[in-house]
Amino acid sequence: MSFLTSRNSGLRQSGPIIQVIVVPPQPIAEQLQKEGKQVPTVKATALIDTGATATCINQDIVDALGLIAFDAQIVGTAGGDVLQSFYDVGIVLPISQPNIVSVQSPCADLKNQPYQVLIGRDVLSMCTLFYNGFDNSFTLHM
Amino acid sequence: MLEKELAVFKTKQAELRAANPNGGFVVIKDDEVLGVWLNRTDAIKEGISKWGNVSFLVKNINDDLTHVVNFSRNLKFPNVVSHVAK
User: Fold this and answer.
1) Which of A46, A66, A81, A104 is nearest to B40 (CA)?
2) Residue B28 to residue A38: CA distance in whole angstroms
3) Share of chain A residues as helix, strand and coil, in percent rounded to the nearest 5
4) Which of A42, A101, A142, B33 has CA 20 to 30 A from A116's CA?
5) Residues B74, A78: C-beta atoms closer than 8 Å
6) Chain A residues with beta carbon closer than 8 angstroms to that of B3
7) What is the rounded CA–CA span in Å between residue B47 and residue B26?
């Protein structure tokens, strides 16, 4: 089991933030490698969000990785439920390297946020998250 | 995008579940059901092998289509397929 602990005096404001790498799903990566093409990757700032059912990515990541939707699911929004495209992606967490966590993510407009990814409870279902408000720290175990 | 495939999935889901008691992931493009594979990666591979790097549906045959993915923050989603009638 590996873990990371992050301590930040601004934790209450920023929330639990980590750096992740987002990659295309394995079949797409393998196809690109067969064609002699480089597999694109995106380094991104991610907020661990216990209020998110699923991990969510910004449109810039969809564009940079050339992702194609292989699923659509209902997403609850303030304006009502919408059927939303979901993209297969791989998330490399600092504690999961070199392993890739495969998830299906909707794309949300996060362009005015200080992060490009929300890590949802799909990834957290494989982790233990300990948020220590007294110490301004959090620990993520995998 | 994928609306047609989801409609096909809805009509076939019970049949797919009966035929695949161990579960699996079905691959559908337009009206064509390519097959069911036990893991999602293999299902996507077969779809790409058949149609190339284009959009097609890969769905867990045991998925509940009424399940709602929720976010506690008020996010905007640019890639809406359709609005869901209550």
Assistant:
1) A104
2) 28
3) 15, 45, 35
4) A142
5) yes
6) 72, 83
7) 10
Position B1: which residue type? M
Locate the chain A residue with the closest alpha carbon to B27.
A70
- The residues, any chain, with a CB within 8 Å of residue B32's CB and separated by 6 or more, are none
Tens of pLDDT, residues A60-103: 999 999 999 999 999 988 778 889 999 999 999 998 888 899 99
C-alpha span between A30 and A24 (Å, rounded): 10
- Using CA atoms, how far apart are residues B67 and B47, in angstroms rounded to an integer? 25
Encode pLDDT of B64-83 as tens digits.
Answer: 999 999 888 788 888 778 77
Rounded Cα gap, residues A70 and A103, in angstroms: 12
For residue A113, what are its two tokens? Answer: 């946020």
For chain B, what's the residue count?
86
From the number of C-beta atoms within 10 Å of its C-beta (0-12, 13-18, 19+), residue A32 rates as middle
User: Which chain A residue shows the shortest CA-CA distance from B42?
Assistant: A27
Quote the CA–CA distance of A31 and A126 in Å, as a whole number. 28
Ranges of each domain in chain B: 1-86
Using a CB-CB distance cutoff of 8 angstroms, which residues of chain B are in contact with residue A30?
45
Structure tokens belonging to residue A19: 């750096």
A vs B: CB pairs below 8 A: 130
